[in-house]
Amino acid sequence: MKLSILSWNVRGLNKRDKRLRVSNLLRDWNADVVCLQETKIQCMSRNIVRSLWGRNHVDWCCLDSCGASGGILIMWDTRVVEKVDVCVGTYSLAVSFKNVVDLSAWAYAEVYGPNLDRDRRFIWDELAGVLSWWNLPWCIGGDFNVTRFPSERSGGARLDSAMMGFSDFISEQGLMDLPLAGGAFTWSVSQDPPLWSRIDQFLISPDLEAW
């Protein structure tokens, strides 16, 4: 069964006009599972979710923000997938799903990684624990706030310990890093010279690729 998953760093959803713009785009993209990072909302509500989804048949779970920092929201079409269980972490939000049509079970984790190198080892430990929670095919997506290779960052970056830690996690967990289509980077800052990087990833377990 083919599913469409959208992962997007929205940089805040507190303003009504921002939620309207996001809702209009989500309606156009029509994804089955929608994952939003950096919501900056401390207490997510059903009214906010419905204003974003803009359709019926929605269920959701969230990781509330810490003040105005972070926050993750996962929404899905209940005609396509059903929630079985949820695991809420510090940097991740994971859901085990069952497909409505073929009853296949799988799991998804959305990530919003820390910005500081000293905190990044905690996310790998957290995700390793989450992956052991359910013995299912996995997909992990989101904004990891770190690149894997110097080539994924503009400005002549060199291989550092944060990059190596990310690659070590992927290798140790037996995950596959899906290639990026349509461009080389996922994030930019308009300055002179501009900065570009690929900090958004989708990682899958080999058993999910067989789907």
How is the secondary structure organized here?
Blueprint: E1 5-9, H1 16-29, E2 33-37, H2 46-53, E3 58-63, E4 72-77, E5 81-88, E6 92-99, E7 105-112, H3 117-131, E8 138-143, H4 161-172, E9 176-177, E10 187-189, E11 195-197, E12 200-204, H5 206-209
Parallel strand pairs: 1-2, 7-8
Antiparallel strand pairs: 2-4, 3-4, 5-6, 6-7, 8-12, 9-12, 10-11
Short account of what is shown:
This protein has 211 residues and is of the alpha+beta class.
From the helix content, strand content and strand pairing, which structural class follows? alpha+beta
Spatial strand sequence of the major β-sheet:
5-6-7-8-12-9
Rg on CA atoms, Å: 17 Å
From the N-terminal CA to the C-terminal CA, the straight-line distance is: 7 Å
What is the CATH fold-level name? Answer: Deoxyribonuclease I, Chain A
**Fourth-level CATH superfamily:** Endonuclease/exonuclease/phosphatase
Quick one: biggest sheet?
A: 6 strands, mixed
Give the proportion of residues in helices: 25-40%
Number of separate structural domains: 1
